[in-house]
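It would be a great kindness if you could assist me with a short task in structural biology. The matter concerns a single protein, recorded as an amino acid sequence and a row of backbone structure tokens. Could you please explain, in whatever detail you think fit, how the structure tokens follow from the sequence? Thank you for your consideration; the sequence and its tokens are set out here:
___
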Amino acid sequence: MGRFLYAISYVFHPLLVPIAGTLAYFLVTPKLNSLQEQSGNILPIFILTVIIPIIFFFILKNLGVVHSIFAVSIKERSYALGINVILFLMILLKVIPQNYIGELYYFFVGLVTAYIAALLLLFLGFKISIHMLGMASLLMYLIGLSIHFEVNITLALGALVMATGLVATSRLYMGAHNWVELVIGFMLGGLSQLLVLKFWL
């Protein structure tokens, strides 16, 4: 059971949330998006939110600045959050405007808002669960897509709710967070997406 819960933290790592949201949009939308529009968003977003952070992690690890992909200490977490905020802003300013998709644009607005808030809380000495922030962001975004496009994705939403519960259990089991940090992380992720819904729903 312990190995399973550890695996959950890797499978649902926050690094994968942006690309998961991007893929979810193209899977759910009834709009006809050309292959150029899809690749013009999916590929650079994957590179900026998965490949580059992993490269940064190995560089910082070799320098002895970070020691775990889960960014356990406050210092490690500040590096991870700061790098992600910059990369999200690059997506908002450079990637999405080339093949503008409003739903994706505001998904990343919500993400960058949540990450900046998490970074500010970190500077105040309070860390939240970025895992739960990511899961809540993705869940709220999928709910928004379902309403916006009037598409029934109940099974996907149910599976994501179950996965969110498993992630919370995993983080508690690993001793990475207490329940307060999990709840605040979930609320911050969900609220950030909820606030931008009015711009695209």
In short: The radius of gyration is 16 Å.
